[in-house]
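Quick question, first post here. What does this chain look like in 3D?
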Amino acid sequence: MTNNTPKGNNWPDGFIWGSATAAAQVEGAAAEDGKEDSVWDAFAHTPGNVLNGDTPAIAVDHYHRMPADVALMKELGLDSYRFSTSWARVRPGGRTTNAKGLDFYSRLVDELLEAGILPWLTLYHWDLPQALEEAGGWANRDTAYRFVDYANDVYTALGDRVQHWTTFNEPFCSSLLGYGSGVHAPGRQEPRAAIAAVHHQHLAHGLAVNELRSRGAQHVGITLNLSNSIPRDPADPVDLEAARLFDSLQNRIFLDPILRGAYPADSLRDLEPFGLSEVIRPGDLEIISAPIDFLGVNHYHDDQISGHPDTSGADGHSGGSGRKAPSCWIGAEHISFPSRGLPRTAMDWEVNPDGLRKLLVRLGKEYPSLPPLYITENGAAYDDVVASDGSVPDIERKQFILDHIAAVGQAIDAGADVRGYFVWSLLDNFEWSWGYERRFGIVRVDYETQLRTIKDSGLAYSQLIADSRSRDADSDRANTAAPVA
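> Answer (accepted):
Ran it through. Tokens below.
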């Protein structure tokens, strides 16, 4: 097995081991205690949008089973739980504060703290109130200011106990997939709206960072899903250009405004026909580039890119329903994703743990103002089989997690400032347009009975955490031992 610790057999002091979920994927209770539809509720109820017609109405019933789920986290030995609050539950219809909705999250935070687990809160994991979408959604600049109202509600209720605040999870998905290809909610297929959504989510992020910090938030950041852009033939100008376009749309139009205060010049040029410059107003980029305390990195796979037609691979963004959709690569619809012949997960994503190491090292080299990094999502979907004794021997997922953790350790050895790792996901759940067909959890959920079973991957992750703590304790004892005379 690959060595899964940095050199010296110790992770950095204070390294956080956690797991993550998202409100729309686990909570259920879609119309209880004042909650109204989010864009994902509405999207899922439209026939043809989600595989098998699945909806998040019940999900895995975390809303009602939360204390038992927190007990599972404690059993696993997690340091931290990364969860999201639902805008549609906190401000139904985007209107006024819903005390009952906030009370659920207050109880969750208290339960976590009582269990010795650090709450790591994400404000936006894609569940915009449907009423705000009907007013234009993220293509409407006003939504950025409504987001600050919502963030203030959550901070007022939880800011006395929550220290770590993530503004957005993967804005790539809620802009380019939601408004460009339409495979994610709200399902629009409007390239100009998608590019407007990119900028308005950036603006909402910056406004919220400033607002939360002014109110005393200690650690504020954002989570981006990032990938390596690998040209199939580095000597082929066509492949090099395709890789540049992919890198712009997947990585740099998100990283650069936040970390450098400017969109890349090539991205501005590429996206001029789609109105990017038209939605940028004076002062926006100063707001967007408000200093952050951490950058969350979500990573599931990296990508080989070509500018030539090639059907041997897939970009992983086609959705699960089979609904016909245009490319999410706006202005670069021709790029292809040739297979490298690597193993693939159930999502048809290539498995390449070393890609995570390369990505983390690259970030540190290319962004001088880079804050500390946290791996806020990493995991894999496989077709689990329950053994006759009720166990779930998910060998592939177990190896995927251990190998990627090893890659994080190698990146740290190479100088990357990584301070935590959150496996995705704590529980099997509603996997967006794939419905309940794809399982990422380290805990299996029987969707009929809601029975939870820790998979072998979860047991291995728990053991890794325990071993890491044991090494830390041994190191501390060695460092404090009295010198021999």
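DSSP finds 16 helices and twelve strands in the chain.
Residues 1-9 have pLDDT under 50 and may be disordered.
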